[in-house]
Amino acid sequence: MKQNNQNLDQQIDNSSLEKDGITNYILRLMLKNSRDIQKSQMRSAVGKLSGLVGIVCNLLLAGGKFVVGFLSGSVSITADALNNLSDAASSIVTLIGFKLAERPADADHPYGHARYEYLSGLAVAVMIIVIGFELAKSSVGKILNPTAVEFSFLTACVLFGSILVKIWLFLFNSKMGKMIHSTTLIATAADSRNDVITTSAVLTAAVVEYFTTWQIDGFMGLAVALFILYSGIDLAKETISPLLGEGANPELQELITDYISSCPKVLGCHDLMVHDYGPGKRFASIHVEMDKDENPLVCHDLIDDMERECLKNHGVHLVIHYDPVVTNNPELERLYHLVTAILKVKDERMSIHDFRMVPGTEHTNLIFDITFPAELRGQENTIKSALEKALNDLGEGTYYTVITFDPVAFK
Predict the structure, then answer these.
(1) Membrane-spanning residues where (predicted)?
(2) Which of 13, 24, 79, 192 is most buried, by CB atoms within 10 Å?
């Protein structure tokens, strides 16, 4: 889980191109200087190669199934052909998406264009949903008005061949997706795996109708259509989420916080915020606590080193906010642990940081941040009141709290 010297999003092992296999052979043909090519270029080349292979394979499969579906009168085979046609369209969009995503940053888009990869995925999802809806209507019509399906050796060969091709595409896109850590290609691989299931169902329907009197072609067509709809909706959710600003990958959060915490003179870190502008284009900020008595010039140099190492090892452009911490005040330390203990009674997941104390003649202000889970949203005033009551019930004086509540996503 802790790949301390790897870029979580763009780790591409060029040496893998030297291994045998059809995929690596094609890559070597496309990338003549694979040892010297930059990772961003490699990512784009791999994505475009996947798109081209998907277009060719799916167009061939769609053509064969359209012919067989027309000759046999099978709506489920025709549905599966349209599914392959939608896959070819998806591959075209994927190809365009990777091409646009490789465009460099410009004055209007200083963070680059990598989000085109997400937008291409969303476009694919919309096409899948539309096709799935149309197939569902056709299949319901076949259920209401069933007609016989003509099964032949050609039908069996085309469908069985389609299953073999889709198994290869699944393995191909899985390898490519893992090579460049692309959720788009991994999703494409999952779609090929799902196609193996749907085509197997279509082949089953054709065989069952040939050997029995059961007319299940319309039902199988409807099942394929529903499966396509489900896949399209699931893909839409996956691609919309990063566009809406989903939280950082927990593994990436742990990589960054573990690295920062292990650095010299760092007492703690908090408020990690990661902004995703597409694969390999992440920007982040974090607060780092250091002793206030440390030389600020030394701390500044250490922070610069952390920012450079985070970009080098994890591919994240990190900006660090320096928090000087008082470490030689026993009363402040005591109150810090007391407040922490009171909060833990309510919920173990709550923690505090940036703890300060401002004594006064009538009362003492305690100023700090609370990191709390999303389920406790809306209970901020209740937590604050309960904490002040618990402190004041100790009879040690009057305490007022000034609290900033941070969601646990920004730990």
Answers:
(1) 49-71, 118-136, 148-171, 214-233
(2) 79
pLDDT band at 411 (very low <50, low <70, confident <90, very high): low
**Residue 314 and residue 374 share a domain:** no
Cβ-in-10-Å burial (0-12, 13-18, 19+) of 299 comes to buried
97: CB partners within 8 A, 6+ apart: 47, 116, 117, 119, 120, 121, 123, 184
The better pLDDT of the pair 380, 23 is held by 380
Spatial strand order of the sheet with 364-372 comes to 351-359, 364-372, 399-407
Q: Report whether pLDDT(368) > 60.
A: yes
Q: 5 pLDDT band (50/70/90 cuts)?
A: very low
Proportion of the chain above pLDDT 90, given as a percent: 18
Instruction: Write down the mean pLDDT value for the chain.
Output: 80
CATH value at residue 382? 3.30.70.1350
> Given a cut of 90, is residue 290 above it in pLDDT?
yes
Selection from 42-56, 210-224, 269-283, 288-302 with the highest mean pLDDT: 288-302
pLDDT at residue 276 tops 60: yes
**Residue 139 shares a structural domain with residue 240:** yes
Q: How is the chain split among helix, strand and coil, in percent rounded to 5? A: 60, 15, 25
Residue 138, domain extent: 14-244
- The CA angle 183-189-194, to the nearest 5 degrees, is 125
Whole-number Å distance between alpha carbons of 19 and 320: 41
Which of 287, 306, 325 marks a domain boundary? Answer: 325
Count other C-beta atoms under 10 Å from residue 143's C-beta.
16
CB 122 within 8 A of CB 240: yes
Report the residue count for the chain. 411
Residue 318 forms beta bridges with which residues? 284
- pTM greater than 0.70: no
Phi, psi of 112 (to 5 degrees): 90, -170
The residue to which tokens 């989000």 are assigned: 115
Q: How many CB atoms lie within 10 A of CB 159?
A: 24
Reduced to 3 states (helix: H, G, I; strand: E, B; else coil), residue 373 is coil
